[in-house]
Amino acid sequence: MSSVANKIPVTVLTGFLGSGKTTLLNRILSDNHGKRIAVIENEFGEVGVDNELVIGAEEEIFEMNNGCICCTVRGDLIRILGNLMKRRDRFDHIMIETTGLADPGPVAQTFFMDDDLQSAMSLDGIVTLVDARHVLDHFDDSAEVREQIAFADVILLNKIDLATAEQLDQLEARIHAMNAAARIYRTRDAAIGMERILGLGGFDLQRALQIDPKFLEPEYPFEWSGAYELEPGEYTFVMGAGPDPAMNACLRRIEAADEPGMRDAVETAVRIYSDTEQPLAPGGAMTPGALLFQLDLAGGPGRFRVLIAERGAYALFTEHHPDEFSAYLADASGDSRQPLATREYKPDHEHDDEVSSVGITTPGDLDLEKFQGWLRELLATKGTDIFRMKGVLSFRNSDRRYVFQGVHMLFDGREDRPWGAETRHNSLIFIGRNLDRAELNAGFDACLA
Amino acid sequence: MFSVKGKDASSVGTREVWRACVDDFIIDLAWSPQGDRLAAVTVDGRVFLSDLSGPPRCLGSHADGAASVAWRSDGKELATGGQDGLIRIWDPATGGATRQLAAGGAWVAKVAYRPRGGELAAAAGKMLRLWDAAGTVVYESADHASTVSDLAWNPDGSGVATTAYLGVTLHVAGRVAPPRKLTWKGSSLALAWSPSSRYIATGEQDSTVHFWHIKTGRDAQMWGFPRKVLELSWHHGGNHLATGGSDTVVLWDCGGKGPEGRTPAMLEGHPTRITQLAFQPRGELLASADAEGSVLWWYPLRGTRPAAGRVFLTEISRLAWDAAGKRVAVGERAGTLTVVEVAP
After folding, report:
1. Rounded to 5 degrees, what are φ and ψ at B101?
2. Which residues lie across from B297 on neighbouring strands?
3. What is the ipTM of this complex?
4. Above pLDDT 70, what percent of chain A?
5. What number is the average pLDDT over the span A221-249?
6. Phi, psi of A172 (to 5 degrees)
7. Chain B residue with minimal CA distance to A118?
8. Would you call A87 and B44 a contact, using CB atoms and an 8 Å cutoff?
9. I need a labelling partner for A345 at 20 to 30 A (CA). Which of A24, B14, B174, B213 fits?
10. How far is A225 from chain B (nearest CA, A)?
11. d(Cα A157, Cα A167) in Å, to the nearest integer?
12. Among residues of chain B, what percentage have pLDDT more than 90?
């Protein structure tokens, strides 16, 4: 058995025609990363780098019937990768570029279903490029674009120069609601650091599960953030009456008062929002840090003090859009301070996407038999709709974490390191079509011991 | 590791008679019909020929890699196929390239000359193509459901069987009617005709082996293999088939009513997965090779203990008996070619 260390990592690039796959591929090949890369191309792109191996392939979908599991695999990849394995000493990484209309499912399933590939290669990650300007035209009528997003470990929202900030925010929120486990990056001309797309270990059990469970919630707990450049002193967050009697908010110090600076603080803000709120009556003071404040309006307008000790950039994350409360940040002389950058996190609720993520995070131990029975039934009846799932489970009578992942009906799981000092919990995510959140939650809860 | 103890009636001697290294994965090799020369092709595409008196000579190469090599039955022509979508014809007497046949720009998985004839068959991507001795295309099949994975001439020379996704297709050159199909909903990867043309055995992606009874079109499915089965070899008597697909050589008795309901013989001794299997032509010895470089010889119809063994340095990628059944050529992942004499 080969260990993960000497398996050749394979990255799959998906994305509609025109989303920038060829541009990204050319970047990967010309980047000075020192890796020898073999490319399997499914489309006639314009990849042209001399000392790399580029192989053309035509999609061949095979239906496989192994016992009770039916699935589709890519026969062309079994053949081509099988041949590449014979040259394995010469390549450090393999890239598979799929056609714009390809379903990533059979590609991922190929790595579960072929023993030879499984022992010599590892599916490192699925990287999906999205044309920020045109993807909305395809969202509703293309199952492929939704599946490419659902399967991704990394999503590049590309061609951001062709869309407005507001469009990008809405698109990103919508994509996040579909696939909460994927990392989303905004790019122009597919410019991205190689470390963000290669070496992800997306299908490696140990590494795939380093996602923070609190980040699995598909909807952001805040709707708006604004970045400010502030001097030391006292400011006031002025709020009018709004739709709710209270609103949560938190304030974070950030690197720079711009969009990327704010983006870096989003994950921390999500975590802060999962903590218990600290009630704050009008006149009370907010400070930057790890506290979530509940700004209590008690039905009327309110003014909340904001204390800044150090000069720098700050991001304010609010549960609702400040406009709903006619809210603004005022300085000591009462003048409104305009944010230097803003972002909205509210998905466009006109769209009820059939693809979504359901994250489950709960303490307690599971009963192995109950869980197996539930999962077997779930995969047998809903397997075609579940694109990916992964998670860490805590089983009664076991002192080790149990890690698992799956693609459609295929499942791979094993015992991991001991829980040790870590709090035992279960945290898993399903990404799929027509998922019933309440039913999944109830089914899972019934498996608790 | 296996061990061969004592020296009973069933043990045989093996002796290295020639060795060379071409520094790349040996993806195929073939003895000349007269047994005087050995041809080999590598994953990087080079074509080698040797008369076993010295190092092999590189005749040329296929861009993007080679896949298959075959001799014409008179030993006067050699064909190679590769991923450049070409079939190259070589003159073994001069070592020169005599002709190039186009396979339509697609992957050529296999080339094979008609037994006792001059026609050449090649898997040309999703098609089967046949050329006559002058290099004219005399048959072209419709597209198979996938790239053709394997092909073999009927031992009586009457036609060619191919495997691809959805089973076996039986082609007969010159026939107007569409070729006969032996359909299985799976991806067939390798095939072997029984010497009497009665059966075709196929190895499948879904880790099964199928026995197709040609006359009736009925098939029996053998399962229980831990991985896909690419290694298939028939005993010359036509009643026994050896299969790989694991660390154990499995010997199926296909005589009488066929293999169904019978327990096969298990030959255990390889420490790891079997990569090659070859019965001695007209003989009783079976050679088996594995991914760590061991080759074992067995008398599988007499017993389940190996009769001889030899260890090589790397995975055995290819193994072939000469037509006389006296020598075995062994090709390795690392590119070493060894010829071993086998004496009972």
Report:
1. -115, 135
2. B287, B308
3. 0.90
4. 91
5. 93
6. -65, -40
7. B227
8. yes
9. A24
10. 53
11. 11
12. 86
CA gap A120, A143 in Å, rounded: 32
The size of the A-B interface in CB pairs under 8 A is 53
Q: What is the pLDDT of residue B1?
A: 36
**Which residue in B44, B65, B146 is closest to A62 by CB distance?**
B146
CB-CB under 8 Å, B25 with A86: yes
The set of long-range contacts for B286-289, using a CB threshold of 8 Å and a minimum separation of 24, is: B286/B233, B286/B235, B286/B242, B286/B249, B287/B319, B287/B321, B287/B328, B287/B342, B288/B242, B288/B244, B288/B249, B289/B316, B289/B319, B289/B330
pLDDT digits (tens, 9 = 90+) for B40-89: 999 999 999 999 999 999 999 998 899 999 999 999 999 999 988 999 99
pLDDT category of residue B304 using cuts at 50, 70 and 90: very high
What's chain B's length in residues?
344
Query: Helix, strand or coil for residue A136?
Result: helix
Confidence of residue B6 (pLDDT cuts 50, 70, 90): very low
Chain A contact for B149 (CB, 8 A cutoff): yes
Tokens for A410? 């295929």
Q: Would you call B226 and A87 a contact, using CB atoms and an 8 Å cutoff? A: no
B-chain residues near A112 (CB < 8 A): none
Q: Which residues of A touch B65 (CB under 8 A)?
A: 83, 87
Residue of B nearest to A88 (CA): B25
Determine, for residues B165 and A114 on separate chains, whether the beta-carbon distance falls below 8 Å.
Answer: no
B228–chain A Cβ distance below 8 A for any pair: yes
Decide if B314 touches A, using CB distance below 8 A.
no
Query: Sheet containing A312-318: which strands, arranged edge to edge?
Result: A278-280, A293-296, A246-254, A312-318, A224-230, A341-344
Mean pLDDT value across residues B278-306: 96
pLDDT at A202: 78
B280 part of contact set with chain A, CB < 8 Å:
no
